[in-house]
Amino acid sequence: MHAHQGWQKSSYCAEGDACIHLAPAPHGAVRLTETSDPTGAILTLAPATWRTWREAIEDGRLPEGGTAGPGGVLRLRGGDPQEVLVTTSTAQWEAFAAGVRAGEFDHMAR
Fold this sequence. Notes:
Blueprint: E1 8-9, E2 20-24, E3 30-34, E4 42-45, H1 47-58, E5 67-68, E6 73-76, E7 86-89, H2 90-101
Antiparallel strand pairs: 1-2, 2-3, 3-4, 5-6, 6-7
């Protein structure tokens, strides 16, 4: 887990730290990381991008820049193919998405 204060994971995640975590970033942006991603990548989403992600998640879709690969591996980017890549599992994504739909991250950028 990253040593930064303010990281939050969904209450739908299993025990332990392995899950998608969010934290507020400067200028209303949101940071996203997956604690089991071996690269330790942190994706920073601008406020408008985070709003678009939330809308997609609430509609049951992967956000733009998200792709599903073999073995249930999801790759997440903010929309730009040159951006940081965060990997997660389908199960961890679903736990995160359940938290988004339940309003657990509503205090993040709108």
